[in-house]
Amino acid sequence: MSLTQAPSSAPRTFLDFPLHLDLDTLAADFAILGIPFGMPYSPDSMANDQSRAPDALRAASEIAEYTRNHFDWDLGGPLLDGKDIKVVDCGNVTADSADHREHYRRAETAAGKIFKAGATLIALGGDHGIPIPIMRALEGVAERITLVHVDAHLDWRHEVNGETEGYSSPIRRAAEMDWFGDIIQIGIRGIGSAREAEVADARAYGADIVTAYEMHEIGMQAVLDRIPDGGPYYLTIDADGLDPTIMPAVMAQTPGGLTWVQTHALIHGLMKKGRVLGMDLVEIAPSRDVGNTTMIHAERLICNFIGASVRTRNYGAV
């Protein structure tokens, strides 16, 4: 049974990894899955610039053979370290314009099949609503998952325009799921949708809110030291959590975000602490990119996630 479709506009899969659409026969170490659509806050806003990001990221990987096989100084060797590691691209979760929630149901089913197969999920959004079905799919995969969240914004709104599963709400929804425990939020800054009540709710839950300014002052290693050891972890990255000088293609550019060096340190440091079940990269708006800067950093981020996981053996069945 396949719940996905081939990339609609990209000439290739991500880094030319094999396309595998039948999730019932999945046998891979890493599975890349596009989830283009979050729950809209208005009837006409489901399909937007961010929904183009999964295919745009695939299309941007122009030198796949070079990236996959040459020496990578971020990793200390080739991407897969000469190991028998299988990475597949599972295409995009399909949508139903007559039933917006069907996209989330399909995304949850697809993510569930990937986790059941023992693969590490790399989800490409889409807006920041798309981790909600992924996090639901993690029920039963592991106990007390630590959520690591990179973002300029808190994302603790209960609802916006009556919608409770949009891009302002994923961390509140995670806090309601019994299989999530500690929540660490990194890079928070500027002005977003959070009001004083949402900040109070996050603190009452026990979320460790590391503002961008505290992060820059104490350093990423000190932030990593505050993340509980051992895992398992799920990593959700809003592109606007990174500084707009390296990821300008976002809807809410906010000065002061994570640098590339800090992002690299977070990914590699988290892998060394314990098993990372999966990650998502969301909120990229391709039409807003400047000189392909965002796409270059997005590809580097994903490659570092894969390469660091391979080197710490934090992949495969739980």
How are the secondary structure elements laid out?
Elements: E1 4-5, E2 30-35, H1 53-60, H2 64-69, E3 87-93, H3 100-116, E4 120-125, H4 131-137, E5 145-150, H5 170-175, E6 180-188, H6 196-205, E7 208-211, H7 212-218, H8 220-225, E8 230-238, H9 260-273, E9 274-282, H10 293-312
Parallel strand pairs: 2-3, 2-4, 4-9, 5-6, 5-8, 6-7, 8-9
Antiparallel strand pairs: 1-3
Helix pairs in contact: 3-4, 9-10
Please describe what this structure looks like.
The mean pLDDT is 93. The radius of gyration is 18 Å and the shape is globular. The protein has a nine-stranded mixed sheet with strand order 1-3-2-4-9-8-5-6-7, with helices on both faces. Helices cover 32% and strands 18% of the residues. β5 (145-150), α5 (170-175) and β6 (180-188) form a beta-alpha-beta unit. The protein has helices at residues 53-60, 64-69, 100-116, 131-137, 170-175, 196-205, 212-218, 220-225, 260-273, 293-312; strands at 4-5, 30-35, 87-93, 120-125, 145-150, 180-188, 208-211, 230-238, 274-282. It has one domain: Ureohydrolase domain (Arginase, Chain A, 3-Layer(aba) Sandwich). The protein has 318 residues and is of the alpha/beta class. The longest helix is centred in the C-terminal third of the chain and has 20 residues, at 293-312.
